[in-house]
């Protein structure tokens, strides 16, 4: 039997290692193809080798964005069982790549968030290229490490840290806009707090208006269309503001030519324009959902599971739209520095904004999709189920928080991170569950069990001490032998009791509404992302400079 079990373990280990090698091979192949294509395309230009290597770094960065950041968009849907892992990955791959290619834009800021002043390079394009290469590789390495540790971190903060560190190494501390860095640091608190509050508020509203009612079917018929319509408004508004801003002039011209009313021509969508489009879609969605519910509700049971089912399809749409907006908005984290290097190689100068060749955008788009397919499940499982248990209503509330928080932040000029918002939303619904179920006093039970374990350990230690004293006694009486026998029996019993108590405590800890250890790990990763990426980037810059000097 033992040989058979060992053989099974060997087979599983081989299968796991074989799968890991396949993933690594596919990732390396994509990076190699990007390098070769870039070099062949720009072989006649000076510094073409730098551009080819930078393209490989950009491909590596894009894959890490796909592996880490995309989990925030589809993780709640997978954790709530609204989507399977395979279905979520397919949807996210299509919409992430689509968002990047369709709405990623033709121009990108070469310096993410304007955190350093390009004038600090004094026109030295060589030094600028080295700095951008260091920033790109440092951000990618940090994301890779975070993904391995199952810690969802902000890709924006990773590239911001990389650019800051390389900029300081290249031109000193004066190159950094510290006010902007202060605003970015504030988002570490702002993003998760707002996301958590909004997610908890939506979940509480759903519970009060539907779940806590005796007639859940009638309550669902009244309120589900309203919640889904609010979702439609929020997501369309979010998508217009964040996902379509790069192609807004062309889209605006098309709408003005085809609709019975016209919008004022603007270079980017305004809140009023986005809200109006969102409102029109919300009204249509409300009517459609109301009609569908009228036919479906009579066949449903009057329980929580049936109400959850009603949020499944809206949640799938939310995951798709979040992925599209993320691909359009965050592809710049991978290709921004790469576009800057491409522009510097081709023109010999340094500019604040650079055009994006289609092949550069394709590297970012397909890299995100490939990284998600190869390594996305690791973080999807963390976001979807390892922080707190999710169902469709909770996941719906998290998705709503992601969209609404970005809308609010964009209007108030607050810097926020989509990663921090989504994870904050997960924290929010988890802590709300604890607050609503506080009568169960799960935390108090755990503390009581901890105290009992300590008492059992003290008793066990006392019994062992007494046993050792008796065993060391030279002249033992009959009473001593009887006591030794009794002590052995008591020690065995106490060891069994202690083992059982530890097992119970472990089980109760797993049932905590929010896993504290995971929360601590994620928050720690958030806090050190910018400084870690900055230090790594500075080291890489000096390494590149040393090699080239």
Give a written overview of the molecule.
The chain has 549 residues and is an all-alpha fold. 80% of the residues lie in helices and 1% in strands. Strands 1-2 form a two-stranded antiparallel ribbon. The model has no long low-confidence stretch (mean pLDDT 83).
Class per helix and strand makeup: mainly alpha
Instruction: Tell me the distance between the termini.
Output: 63 Å
User: Using only CA atoms, what is the Rg?
Assistant: 28 Å
Unreliable spans: none
Q: Profile the largest sheet.
A: 2 strands, antiparallel
Number of strands: 2
* Overall 3D form: globular
What helical percentage do the residues reach?
over 70%
What is the mean pLDDT?
Answer: 83
Strand order of the largest sheet: 1-2
Strand content: under 5%
Report the total helices.
18
What's the number of domains? 2
How do the SSEs run, as a string of H and E?
HHHHEHHHHHHHHEHHHHHH
Could you name the key traits of this structure?
mainly alpha, 18 helices, 80% helix
Task: Summarize the entry for a quick read.
The chain is mostly helical and 549 residues long. The chain has helices at 2-41, 48-68, 71-79, 85-103, 125-148, 155-171, 178-211, 216-243, 248-258, 271-296, 304-310, 312-347, 358-386, 392-412, 418-436, 442-472, 478-510, 516-548, and strands at 107-109, 353-355.
């Amino acid at each position: 039997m033992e040989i058979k079990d060992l053989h099974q373990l060997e087979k599983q280990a081989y299968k796991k290692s074989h799968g890991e090698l396949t993933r690594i091979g596919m990732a390396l192949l994509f990076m190699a193809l990007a390098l070769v294509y870039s070099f062949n395309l720009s072989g006649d230009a000076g510094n073409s080798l730098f551009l080819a290597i930078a393209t490989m770094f950009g491909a590596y960065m894009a894959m890490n964005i796909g592996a880490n950041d995309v989990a925030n968009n589809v993780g709640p849907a997978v954790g709530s069982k609204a989507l399977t892992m395979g279905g979520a990955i397919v949807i996210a791959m299509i919409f992430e790549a689509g968002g990047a290619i369709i709405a990623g834009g033709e121009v990108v800021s070469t310096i993410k968030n304007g955190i350093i002043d390009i004038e600090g390079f004094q026109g030295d394009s060589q030094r600028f290229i080295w700095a951008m290469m260091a920033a790109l590789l440092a951000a990618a390495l940090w994301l890779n490490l975070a993904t391995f540790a199952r810690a969802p971190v902000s890709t924006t903060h990773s590239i911001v840290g990389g650019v800051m560190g390389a900029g300081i190494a290249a031109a000193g501390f004066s190159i950094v806009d510290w006010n902007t860095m202060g605003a970015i640091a504030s988002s570490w608190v702002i993003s998760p707090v707002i996301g958590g509050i909004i997610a908890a508020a939506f979940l509480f509203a759903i519970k009060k208006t539907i779940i806590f009612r005796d007639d859940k079917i009638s309550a669902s018929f009244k309120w589900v269309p309203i919640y889904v319509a609010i979702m439609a408004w929020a997501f369309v508004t979010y998508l217009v503001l964040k996902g379509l801003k790069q192609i807004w002039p062309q889209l605006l011209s098309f709408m003005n030519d085809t609709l019975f009313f016209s919008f004022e021509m603007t270079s980017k969508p305004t809140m009023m324009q986005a809200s109006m489009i969102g409102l029109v879609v919300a009204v249509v969605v409300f009517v459609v959902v109301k009609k569908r519910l009228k036919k479906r509700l009579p066949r449903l049971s009057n329980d929580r599971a049936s109400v959850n089912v009603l949020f499944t399809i809206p949640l799938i749409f939310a995951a798709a739209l979040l992925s599209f907006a993320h691909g359009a908005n965050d592809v710049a984290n991978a290709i921004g520095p790469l576009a800057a290097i491409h522009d510097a190689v081709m023109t010999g100068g340094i500019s604040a904004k650079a055009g994006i060749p289609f092949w550069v955008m394709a590297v970012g788009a397909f890299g995100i999709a490939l990284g998600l397919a190869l390594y996305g499940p690791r973080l999807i499982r963390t976001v979807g189920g390892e922080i707190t248990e999710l169902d469709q209503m909770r996941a719906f509330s998290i998705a709503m928080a992601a969209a609404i928080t970005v809308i609010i932040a964009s209007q108030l000029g607050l810097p926020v991170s989509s990663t921090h918002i989504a994870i904050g939303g997960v924290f929010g619904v988890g802590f709300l569950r604890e607050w609503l179920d506080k009568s169960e006093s799960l935390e108090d039970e755990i503390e009581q069990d901890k105290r009992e374990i300590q008492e059992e350990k003290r008793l066990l230690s006392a019994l062992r001490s007494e046993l050792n004293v008796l065993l060391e006694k030279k002249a033992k009486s009959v009473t001593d032998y009887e006591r030794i026998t009794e002590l052995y029996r008591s020690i065995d019993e106490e060891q069994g009791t202690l083992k059982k108590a530890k097992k119970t405590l472990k089980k109760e800890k797993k049932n905590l509404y929010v896993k504290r250890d995971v929360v601590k790990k994620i928050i720690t990763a958030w806090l050190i992302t910018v400084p870690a990426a900055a230090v790594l980037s500075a080291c890489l810059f000096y390494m590149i400079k040393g090699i080239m000097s």
